[in-house]
Amino acid sequence: MRWLRFALCLLSAVDIVLIYYVEAVDRSNFKTCQQSSFCRRCRGVQPGKSSYELHLNTLKIEPSSIEVEMINTQNGARFRFQLFALQDETFRMKINEWAPLKPRYEVQYALQGEPVLNKLTVIEKTAEFISVMAGANKVTVHAIPFRVDLFSGDQLVISVNARGLMKFEHIRPKPEQNEAGEKIEDEGGPHIDDTLSDPGAWEENFKSHHDSKPNGPTAVALDFSFNGAHYAYGIPEHADSFALKSTKNIDPYRLYNLDVFEYELNNGMSLYGSVPVLIAHGNTHTAGIFWLNAAETWVDILGTADQNVVSSIVNFVSGSATPPQVDTHFMSESGIIDTFFMLGPKPKDVFRQYTRLTGTTPLPQYFALAHHQCRWNYNDQDDVRNVDNKMDEYDIPNDVMWLDIEHTDSKRYFTWDPVKFSQPTEMINNLTAKGRKLVTIVDPHIKRDSNYFLHNDAENNDYYVKTKDGKVFEGWCWPGSSSYLDLLNPEIRSYLSSQYLLQNYHGSTLDLYIWNDMNEPSVFNGPEITMHKDSLHYGGWEHRDIHNIYGLLNTVSTYEGLLQRSDGKLRPFILTRSHYAGSQRYASVWTGDNTAEWGHLQITIPMCLSLSVAGISFCGADVGGFFKNPDSELFSRWYQAAAFQPFFRTHSHIDTKRREPWLFDEPTLLLIREAIRTRYSFLPLWYTLFFEHEQDGAPVMRPLWVEYPSEVATFALDDEYLLGDRLLVHPVTQPGVSDVSVYFPGTQDIWYDINTYRKVQGGGTVKIAVTMSKIPVFQRGGTIIPKKERIRRSSALTHNDPYTLIVALDRNGSASGTLYMDDGQSFDYREKKYLYLSLEFKGNKLSSRYIDTARYPTRSWLERVVILGLPPGITRAQAESKSAGRVTLETTYNTETQSLIVRKPAVSMAEEWTIVLQ
Ligand SMILES: *[C@@H]1O[C@H](CO)[C@@H](O)[C@H](O)[C@H]1NC(C)=O
Ligand SMILES: *[C@@H]1O[C@H](CO)[C@@H](O)[C@H](O)[C@H]1NC(C)=O
After folding, report:
1. Rounded CA separation 325/310 (Å)
2. Active site residues
3. Local structure of residue 407 (DSSP, 8 states)
4. pLDDT in tens, 774-829
5. Which among 430, 438, 511 is the best mutation to test ligand 1's pocket, defined by most ligand atoms within 8 Å of the CB?
C-alpha cells in the first residue's frame, strides 16, 4: 500500500516533483528472473538432459507409499524420492536431500491437516520403471532419466520431468577462497554443474541491498506437462488474464509476496499473495498441481494462450492436430520438492481434491457478504457517524464501516487516536444499533516506541524477527522505525492472538472485525519493499524459506484471537492482503491497491477467478479503484460489477477526493444505490453458495468451463463468469458502450435476463443492450434462486424477512435449487442448527423439502414465486403445508415474458410445502 506518501517526507522538493509524475509501477524496484540468481540458473537448464536417476534396487514399498534413492549423476548428490497415494485420486511426491548438511524447510500451516493416505498397489516393476495403482489412477515412475507419469484411467494426464528440467541444489559447504578471492573447488567433488559458477550463488546484490546467502545455492525446480490441456489457470496473484499466457519470450510468472505500488496490468509480476496451485483444463480432462513451497518461486508456462496454440486447439477440436498440451516449470529458491497432484477428472473433482488438502472457506457471517464502506481514512468518529447516517438518508444499505491506519494513536495498532476516536465503544454500538459492524486495520509491523505496550512486550520477550547477525530487525513502515513479530513462532502467534481479546483491545466489542494489511510483509526500505531474505525466524529458518507464508501466519493469529474472543461462538471475519495456499480457511482476500481506471475494473474478473480456482473464493477488489478518482461512469459500472463479486467493499486512497455516493450527481447516486440494493436482494443466494462451497470446495465465482468443461469457447473468457451453476455475470467494464457481447454457454440451455426475463438460447454469443442502469446478469434455466426483496439499512435487519423464489425453467419445464439459512453469525450451524432446503419444480408443482435433519426455526415465509419460461394456461395455484393446510393463491401471467407470479403463498419456510399450478 501507498508507501509513496511516506517516502515523500524523506525526499527533497526536487525529488518530489520527479516522483509525482511517476504514473505507474517502478519496475526497477522489483527483480526480473535474470536479476534473481536462482531463477537464472533454473531457467538456464537445457531440456532433455536430466541428470537425475532413480536407483530402483533401493526401492521400499509401504502400504501407501514408495521410496527410492535418487542421484544427480553430474555431482553425485543423493536424494530421497517418495510417492504417496492420498485419498480422492490425489498423489503427493516429495524429493529431499538424502542427508542434507542442514535441514531444508518444509512448509507448515498451508495444509489443513495430515493428508489422508490411500492404499497403493504395485502392478509392475522392472529395472527401468515401477507402476503403482491407487483408486482409478496409475502412476509410472521411470528410473533413467527420472520421470513420473500420472494417469487417470487410461489417459496420461501429468508427466513430471518429461522435459528434464529438474534441478535440486543440494546444500554444500561454502567453497574456500584463496588470497586472490577465487573460489577453490574441493578436489574430489565432481562439481560439474553450473551452480557454483553463478556469481550469485553465494551472495547476491540487488540495488543497494545485499543478500548474504549463508547457505549458498539451494534452489529446487521441476517441470510438469499436462497432456490434453488447452490452458492452465491459477498460480495467483497476478494482474493478468485468467488463462495463463505463454512465458516463452518474457519473464516467468513470479510468486513472491510484495507490496507493489501502483501495479500494472497484464504481466506476471509478483503481487501481494502467492498460491502455488495450477489447474490445467482441456475438453476431456481437468487436473491440478500444488507446489508446496513458501520461498520465492517463478513459473514458466509454455503452449497455452499464444496464437499458435489457439490455432492448434481449433485444429484439435476439428480432429486434425496433435492433442494440446501445457508445459510448466516451477522454480523455487529454497525448501524441498513437495508436490500434490489432483487428478480430476472433472473440474469439480479437482477443487474438491485440492480443498481436502488445504481446506475451504468457512461459511462467512451474513454481514460479510453484504456491502462494506471503507476509505483511507474516515477521519474521526463524527465522520463515521455522518457517513453512517447519510447511508440511511439516501436509502443505501450498508453493513460495515471500515477504519484505516489513521484511526490509531500514531500507528500503534490496537489503540485509538485519543482525540479523533475518543469513544470507540460508543461509536461501534451506534453502528450495531442499526445491525452494522466496524472493521479496524491491524498491520503486522510494530512501531518501535517505548510508549507502546506491544513493542515493549515484544522487546522484553524477544518476539521480533532477527537480522542475519541476530539483532532485532528494523525496517521502515507506516509508523516509521518498525520491527516485525516472528509469527513463525507459535508462542508469538498466540501472544498476538490474545491482543484481540476484548479485555486487551480496549474500546473494541464483538462487533469489531479485522483487516490485516501490509503483511507481505511490507518494509519500505527493504529489498523489493520487503524483508531481507537472510533475516532469521524461529527455528533458525531464514526469511527466504518462509516469506510467502508470513501473511498466512498473520491471519492464523488473527483468526485464533477473534475465535477466542467469543469463546468460539462467532465466526471471525478477516480481510487480508497477503495470502498463500490455505489462507481461505482464515480470511477473505482483496486484490490490493488498484487504480480508478477501466483496465483495473476489467482485471478484477480474471484476478478473482484465478484466486477462486486456487481455493480462495472470498475475493474482491476495491470498488472505484484505490488510486486516482473515478468518474461517474466508471464508479457506477464498478459498483454494478462488484455487486456480483464475492467481497464487496468500496475503498480509496487518502489523497483521492471523497467519493461517498451522495457526493456524485443524482443519476450516479441512484445507479450506485440500485447496484447495492441488487446485491442485498441476492444475499440469500450468496449465503447458500458459500455454505455449499464450505462442503464441496467448488469456487463460488467460477469460470464457465467448470459447468461446461467441454465447451472450448468458454476456456479463455476474461469478461464473464458464473455464480454457482445459477447466474451468468457479464458486467459492463468498458466506457461509453451501448451493448456487450455475452457468450451464453450450453446448447441445451436457456438463459433468462434477471431484469427483463427475456430468454436467450445458449451456445453462442449474443449482443445485449446496456443502458447505464443495466447489469447483464442471467439466470440459467433449470435453476431456482432465493432472494429477499425488502431492502433495509443492513442485512441483519432482513433476518426474518420473507423470501422470493425465482424459478427459471429449462426446456423440459423443470428447475431445481437449494436454499440455506441459519442465524447468520455463529458456529451453531456446525451443530446442525440450520435449514437446508431442496427446491424443485416439476410437472407444474413446486416443492420445498429438507435436505438433511438439521433444523433452524426461521420466522421467514414465502412472499412470492416467479416462474420464468412457463407456457400460458395456468389460472390459479394452490399451496399446501402442514400448519396452513390448503390455500388457493392468486397468480398473474405475463404473456410477453412468459412468466407467472404467484402472490403471497405465505407458507412458512421452516416447514416443507408444495405449490401446485392449475
Ligand atoms: C452515538 O449516537 C448518538 C446519537 O446519534 C450521538 O449523539 C453520539 O455522538 C454518537 N457517538 C459516537 C461516538 O459517535
Ligand atoms: C430433458 O429431459 C430429457 C429426457 O428426460 C433429458 O435427457 C434432458 O437432459 C433434459 N433436459 C434438460 C435441459 O434438463
Report:
1. 11
2. 517, 593
3. G
4. 999 999 999 999 999 999 999 999 999 999 999 999 999 999 999 999 999 999 99
5. 430
CB 439 within 8 A of CB 515: yes
Cβ contacts of 775 within 8 Å, gap of 6 or more: 640, 641, 643, 644, 675, 678, 729, 731, 732
Domain 783-917, what architecture?
Sandwich (2.60)
Sketch the domain layout of the chain as residue ranges: 52-170+216-358, 366-696, 720-779, 783-917
Predicted confidence band of residue 16 (pLDDT cuts 50, 70, 90): very low
In sequence order, what are the beta bridge partners of 768?
A: 740
**810 pocket-lining for ligand 2 (C-beta < 6 Å):** yes
Enter the C-alpha cell of residue 850: 429438507
Cα–Cα distance list, 838 to 97, 515, 911, 915 (Å): 53, 36, 12, 14
Query: Do 344 and 350 contact (CB within 8 A), yes or no?
Result: yes
| CB neighbour list of residue 392: distance below 8 Å, 6 or more residues apart | 434, 793
pLDDT at residue 181, rounded to an integer: 52
876 lines ligand 2 (CB under 6 A): no
CATH number assigned to the domain covering 366-696? 3.20.20.80
According to DSSP, residue 300 is labeled E
Of 783, 716, 720, 721, the residue nearest 749 (C-alpha): 783
CA nearest 639: which of 670, 599, 606?
670
3-state secondary structure of 551: helix
Residue 495 contacts residue 463 (beta carbons within 8 Å) = yes
Task: Choose the weakest-confidence range: 10-24, 42-56, 672-686.
Answer: 10-24
Q: Name every residue whose Cβ is closer than 8 Å to that of residue 276 and which is 6 or more positions away in sequence.
A: 235, 255, 290, 291, 292, 293, 297, 299, 330, 581
CATH 3.90.180.10 is the classification of domain 720-779: no
The burial of 794, by beta-carbon neighbours within 10 Å (0-12 exposed, 13-18 middle, 19 or more buried), is given as buried
Asked whether the beta carbons of 565 and 499 are under 8 A apart, the reply is: no
- Report the distance separating Cα 399 and Cα 396, nearest Å: 10
What span, in angstroms and rounded, lies between the C-alpha atoms of 909 and 661?
36
* pLDDT tens digits, one per residue of 289-324: 999 999 999 999 997 444 444 444 444 444 445 789
What is the atom index within ligand 2 of the atom nearest the CA of 812?
Answer: 1
Beta pairing class for 231-234 and 253-255: unpaired
Helices marked H in 193-293:
none
CA atoms within a 13 Å half-sphere pointing along the CA-CB vector of 690: 29
**pLDDT per residue over 58-93, tens digit each?**
999 999 999 999 999 999 999 999 999 999 999 999
Of 607, 489, 499, the C-alpha closest to 239 is 607
| pLDDT at residue 176, rounded to an integer | 75
Counting ligands in written order, the one closest to the CA of 762 is 2
Interatomic CA distance for residues 594 and 625, integer angstroms: 5
- Asked if residue 471 has pLDDT above 50, the reply is yes
747 lines ligand 2 (CB under 6 A): no
Q: Is 186 a residue whose pLDDT tops 80?
A: no
C-alpha cell at 160: 513430471
CA distance 306 to 245: 7
Q: Which CATH architecture has domain 52-170+216-358?
A: Sandwich (2.60)
Range 651-669 burial, b when 16+ CB lie within 10 A, else e: bbbeebeebbbbebeeebb
C-alpha cell at 230: 488447452
**Nearest protein Cα to ligand 1, atom 13:** 427
**C-alpha cell of 532?**
531481507
Q: Would the CATH topology of 52-170+216-358 be identical to that of 720-779?
A: yes
Write the burial class of residue 195 (CB in 10 Å: 0-12 exposed, 13-18 middle, 19+ buried): buried
DSSP lists the bridge partners of residue 760 as 751
Nearest-CA residue for ligand 2 atom 2 is 812
pLDDT score of 182: 56
Q: Rounded distance, CA 892 to CA 866, Å?
A: 10
Q: Residue 492, Cα to own-chain centre: how many angstroms?
A: 26
